[in-house]
Design brief:
Layout lengths: L2 H17 L6 E4 L13 H15 L4 H21 L4 H20 L9 E3 L6 E5 L12 E5 L3 E4 L8 E2 L4 E7 L6 H4 L6 E11 L2 E7 L6 E4 L2 E4 L2 E2 L2 H10 L2 H9 L9 E4 L8 E6 L10 H8 L2 H6 E7 L6 H18 L6 E6 L1 H8 L7 H6 L11 H11 L7 E7 L7 H4 L1 H9 L4 H13 L24 H6 L10 E6 L21 H4 L6 E5 L9 H16 L10
Parallel strand pairs: 3-9, 14-15, 14-16, 16-17, 17-18, 18-19
Antiparallel strand pairs: 1-5, 2-3, 4-7, 6-12, 7-8, 8-9, 10-11, 13-15
Helix pairs in contact: 1-15, 2-3, 2-4, 3-4, 10-11, 10-13, 13-16
Length: 562
């Protein structure tokens, strides 16, 4: 079969994978309506009357509607002071606060720069907000959407995680791109779930935006209330608007064009008291792939109280030792900005597991001397090539890593990467210019043996997943760093097979069991699924168990690297 035809077939298959599937997330705007009830005379009846009056003004006079909704929220607030257990009044308060935020957006008003006078029966309200010294908590930077106005769907949004309580859950979307994203280790555009409260002092209405990932309850009118939350809406809006799927294939085939996307990003504000969970995606993927797991974990109060979630994103066309070198540089930088008090947990799926393996490995000069004919101290190659190859082949384990979870990780390679499909796929990946010179030097000094994968330049990601790749074979001889527990989760598509390399082999369809298995694991679980094991409910429950175990015996991070 001509190679050009094979290439076309494989490219068509890759495009089909990305374009033929259900979108990761979809968001549909709805207009929530208050469902009238027939309460006895009292606070709830008065709140309902105000809500109905406000709804009648929404279309023609948002400012008038705003005043009525503020009146409804105030009446409900006063009632909750006397009877905090009245769920119906609490729900009415939440509904009114949501509509206040909605009408502010519709009226294109700005109560964040200076107080806003809002006409209302019995006198104008003076609407303002609680000042927050944190730069990224300036409400003028965001557009707020009440979560009850959003219907969510998509292949990664399989369940909506809500918490009952006081307040109006909102999605805060950055009005502009975050210019300091690289330095702050944040997402290029902010998407975050917050919960709005309005506290009243006579006719003064003060809006506060609470972080449901930082606190589970609030003090309101002198009483403690659980804080309402929607943990899913902001994730869904982020996926629907950023459309990460469109870049996943591009970052595989043309990694050099997306070099700036290789970075760590925080999913939530930095909290030095919370342990970092760093998730690392795999080949032809993006951080979006972790949505089902993170969505579930954030709804667990114990996990939410003790952990914060960070992503490592990278162009998956890079050879994974190079991606691991970039990650080490990112960890150095993030440690200076956000020093950790507790050792982090790293979770790697597929090739992300291979990257994670290198974080708990000490190489010395063993890899270099095994793969190259010139000793490390006398490389006889260009300084740029020496630096790049040294970063990829000579490193120590990361002291800030306290536990690793490997999910469907081809730690010993995958036969598909070494077969004809993998070879065609490898040719589709365009090597970045920055790596081409190092690739030529590598070929000049590389040591190959019979049966080794033959390459024509610096290996790319597909090459470094082949079982007969020299790096893949050599790294197996290096032990994992003692004292760092690790766990293995593998997928089994249910077709049976051997756990050894003798065909037929048990597999998730891409990674065989013999490649993902690791002796010495603190635990091992095989889940009945394909390669997307990290999204399977049993895997998510196992990660939840492991994080609970880790939290019970946390390890402090050293202040300096070894």
């Amino acid at each position: 079969m001509p190679i050009t035809f094979q290439r076309r077939c494989l490219l068509a298959m890759l495009l089909g994978i990305l374009t033929g599937c259900t979108p990761y997330a979809g968001v549909v705007s709805v207009h929530p309506r208050w469902i009238p009830v027939n309460p006895p005379p009292g606070a709830l009846a008065e709140v309902q009357r105000k809500i109905v009056q406000a709804a009648a003004h929404e279309a023609k006079s948002p400012l008038t509607a705003l005043g009525e909704y503020l009146s409804a929220a105030r009446i409900a607030s006063d009632s909750l002071t006397k009877n905090p257990g009245d769920i119906s009044v609490r729900n009415a308060y939440n509904f009114a606060v949501s509509r206040v935020i909605c009408e502010l957006q519709k009226a294109k008003t700005d109560p964040w720069s200076q107080p806003l006078s809002v006409p209302a029966e019995g006198g104008d309200f003076l609407l303002t907000h609680t000042q927050d010294p944190r730069r990224l908590w300036d409400p003028s930077l965001y557009h707020f959407t009440p979560a009850d106005q959003l219907e969510l769907k998509g292949s990664y949004i399989t369940e909506r995680k809500l918490k009952e309580g006081l307040g109006a859950p909102l999605v805060a979307t950055g009005r502009e791109s975050n210019r300091n994203a690289q330095q702050d280790f944040t997402l290029p555009k902010m998407y975050y779930g917050v919960t709005a409260l309005i506290r009243f002092d006579n006719k003064r209405a003060v809006v506060s935006f609470e972080d449901p990932l930082a606190t589970g309850q609030v003090t309101f009118n002198g009483r403690a209330f659980p804080l309402a939350a929607d943990y899913t809406a902001s994730l869904a809006v982020m996926l629907a608007e950023s459309k990460p799927k469109k870049l996943e294939l591009a970052r595989l085939l043309h990694p050099g064009k997306y070099a700036g996307t290789a970075r760590i990003a925080r999913l939530q504000p930095y909290d030095p008291d919370k342990t970092v969970v760093l998730v690392v995606h795999g080949l032809m993927d993006s951080p979006a792939t972790w949505t089902p797991m993170i969505n579930h974990l954030l709804a667990n109060g114990r996990i939410r109280d003790h952990y914060q979630f960070w992503y490592y994103s990278y162009p998956s066309g890079y050879p994974y030792p190079y991606s691991a070198a970039i990650l080490r540089r990112e960890l150095d930088a993030v440690e200076k900005r956000y020093p950790l008090r507790n050792k982090m947990v790293v979770i790697g799926h597929s090739m992300g597991g291979c990257i994670s393996r290198l974080l708990i490995t000490d190489t010395g000069d063993k890899l270099w001397n095994t793969l190259l004919r010139r000793p490390l101290e006398k490389p006889e190659m260009a300084s740029e090539s020496r630096s790049l190859l040294s970063d990829a082949l000579v490193f120590r384990h990361r002291p800030e890593v306290g536990r690793v979870i490997f999910i469907a990780a081809p730690l010993r390679g995958a036969d598909m990467a070494g077969g004809w499909m993998g070879r065609v796929g490898s040719r589709l990946v365009k090597a970045p210019e920055s790596l081409t010179k190092a690739g030529n030097d590598l070929l000049q000094w590389a040591v190959f043996h019979a049966g080794d994968l033959q390459i024509h330049g610096l290996p790319n990601s597909v090459d470094t997943l082949a079982p007969n790749n020299r790096f893949v074979k050599a790294v197996q001889d290096l032990p994992l760093t003692p004292g760092i527990p690790y766990h293995v989760i593998s997928g089994d598509r249910g077709k049976g097979g051997n756990t050894t390399r003798i065909p037929p082999c048990r597999s998730d369809g891409l990674v065989p069991y013999w490649s993902s298995h690791l002796d010495g694991a603190a635990s091992e679980l095989v889940v009945p699924c394909n390669h997307s094991a990290h999204q399977h409910p049993q895997t998510i429950q196992e990660v939840e168990r492991i994080l609970t175990l880790h939290q019970a015996s946390p390890v402090s991070s050293p202040k300096t690297h070894p």
